[in-house]
Amino acid sequence: MKASAGIREPRKLTDKGQATRERILEHAAELIYTKGVHATNNEQLRRAASVSGSQLNHYFPTKESLVLAVIEWRAERVLSFHRSERFASFDSLDALREWADFYVGFERAHQEGCTLGSLASEIIKTDLDVHDELANVFDQWRDIFRDGLQRMQRLGRISADADPVRLANLLLSAFQGGMLLSQVQRNTTPLRDALQTAIDYVETFETPLDSAPPRVQ
Fold first, then answer.
1. Residues 6 or more apart whose Cβ sits within 8 Å of residue 197
2. Measured at the alpha carbon of residue 60, what is the angle toward residues 59 and 66, in degrees to the nearest 5?
3. With contact defined as beta carbons under 8 Å apart, do 121 and 179 qualify?
4. How many whole angstroms separate alpha carbon 49 and alpha carbon 1?
5. What is the pLDDT of residues 153-209, one digit of tens each?
6. Dist CA 14 CA 71 (whole Å)
7. Distance separating alpha carbons of residues 71 and 76, to the nearest angstrom
8. What distance in Å separates the CA atoms of residue 119 and residue 187, rounded to the nearest whole number?
9. From the centroid of its chain, how far is CA 117?
10. DSSP state, residue 209
11. Which DSSP state fits 8?
12. How far separated are the first and last CA of the chain, in Å rounded?
């Protein structure tokens, strides 16, 4: 993922340095997820990642720089998954249903929830100056759905009356809300219902096959 404004690209690292940085980020993301931003401290992170204080300060001199990097690290995994060929660029209702089925069928969904959403809920409680970067990540996630819905319009699969931005916001909101309620209830029924209802609404804009325009190359 291209770093957003305010997230500094790390300087060129050796393979060993990159591995150390990745290990720190992986453990930092897990600690923040389980303990929260304020309750996560350098000592915990040094022990978890098996690094020295000087190593930690070398890669992340401030807590803000660490949190910014964790946002980018976590977002890279979520966005890359959604941009993969698995969902065929979300240019069909079947692709949306496959995406929903994946998460509903994910056995730890009701335990882990959305890792990026959980991270966001922790960060917005703090006074760290990272809100713009966090908002940018969710904008990129929404835009993956928006772009897919726009392709569906160009391909004649949904009508021109559909608003891709509003529908994309609906899909992402259904996912986030469904994930949260699934954690609360300890089952994936709320997630299944939320995503199915959102996709059913997108389907109301589906264009009959015999009225679809020629496929746009």
1. 174
2. 130
3. no
4. 24
5. 999 999 999 999 999 999 999 999 999 999 899 899 999 999 999 999 999 999 987
6. 22
7. 8
8. 21
9. 7
10. G
11. P
12. 27
